[in-house]
Design brief:
heterodimer, A: four-stranded antiparallel sheet, globular, B: about 120 residues, seven-stranded mixed sheet
Chain lengths: ~110, ~120
């Protein structure tokens, strides 16, 4: 069975600083996708960034970037220049075919 | 461009009542997903449809749950009879899947269900 592990239930970071959220996954597949979703207090699930497993280059979206280590099955999210609006639950997710499997989430607090 | 639309946003009902949750996927998307989020179990996939056909319903907890997709722009998730342990946030998501290429799933705002 595919599993996604987020070992940090909570993280905090000073505004304008950089924070890295960890995620590891377990799969025997070679063709899959990885995602980070953000869930603010409104409960809306918002896509932050995605990574195709066949791409070696790490995905980047503005202040958000990933460190994808396929051999280690690791997919961490780096948030640069943290802003108050980044405060949310962050979920790492793995997708094979149509099915998304989510981690348990990391609650990120931004300290003003 | 409208995102995934879910209704109602909040539902409070009494145990034993029927509950119907509704979803309108993003226009042009051909895959639709129903998820449930609880504190205990996190986010779980209940069922998903491709081209209006249920593909995998292994996540549906029991026979009290049923889902339909009568056309490409509408889906329902029904719970009958409802129980307090069904209280959760239910998300609908949609994506455009073509062959082996599966695009990102976009989530609706969710329906917060409370069964008393």
């Amino acid at each position: 069975a595919q599993t996604v592990t987020q070992s940090q239930p909570e993280m905090s970071v000073q505004e304008a600083e950089t924070v890295t959220l960890s995620c590891t996954y377990d799969t025997s597949e070679s063709d899959y996708y990885l995602f980070w979703y953000k869930q603010p207090p409104s409960r809306q699930m918002i896509l932050v960034i995605r990574q195709e497993a066949y791409k070696q280059q790490n995905a980047t979206e503005n202040r958000f970037s990933v460190n994808f280590q396929k051999a280690a099955k690791s997919f961490s999210l780096k948030i640069s220049d943290s802003q108050l609006g980044d405060a949310a639950m962050y979920f790492c997710a793995y997708r094979i075919n149509e099915k998304l499997t989510f981690g348990t989430g990391t609650r990120l607090t931004i300290i003003p | 461009d409208a995102g995934v639309i879910q209704s109602p946003r909040h539902e409070v009902t009494e145990m034993g009542q029927e509950v119907t949750l509704r979803c309108k996927p993003i226009s042009g998307h051909n895959s639709l997903f129903w998820y449930r989020q609880t504190m205990m179990r996190g986010l779980e996939l209940l069922i998903y449809f491709n081209n209006n056909v249920p593909i995998d319903d292994s996540g549906m907890p029991e026979d009290r749950f049923s889902a339909k997709m009568p056309n490409a722009s509408f889906s329902t998730l029904k719970i009958q009879p409802s129980e307090p342990r069904d209280s959760a946030v239910y998300f609908c998501a949609s994506s455009l899947g073509v062959g082996r290429i599966r695009e990102t799933q976009y989530f609706g705002p969710g329906t917060r269900l409370l069964v008393l």
